[in-house]
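INFO  loader      accepted 1 record
INFO  loader      residues=65
INFO  predictor   begin
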Amino acid sequence: MKRIIKFVVYGAIAFYIFLFAFIGNTTDNNNARKISLTLVIIVVGWNVLKNPLKRFFRKIFNNNS
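INFO  predictor   done
INFO  writer      dumping tokens
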């Protein structure tokens, strides 16, 4: 079930990245390009920083309990 939810969420994000990039390129709309770039940065950043953040928060909450 978790895999299906992940697939749907990442699929939706990929669709919006493609949509805003396509709109930005076909209409020279800089705002759509910025939205597309922002979504890419959020997805890549989340995937890169997810495990270090989990370790950091586990360390904080385990030391205080």
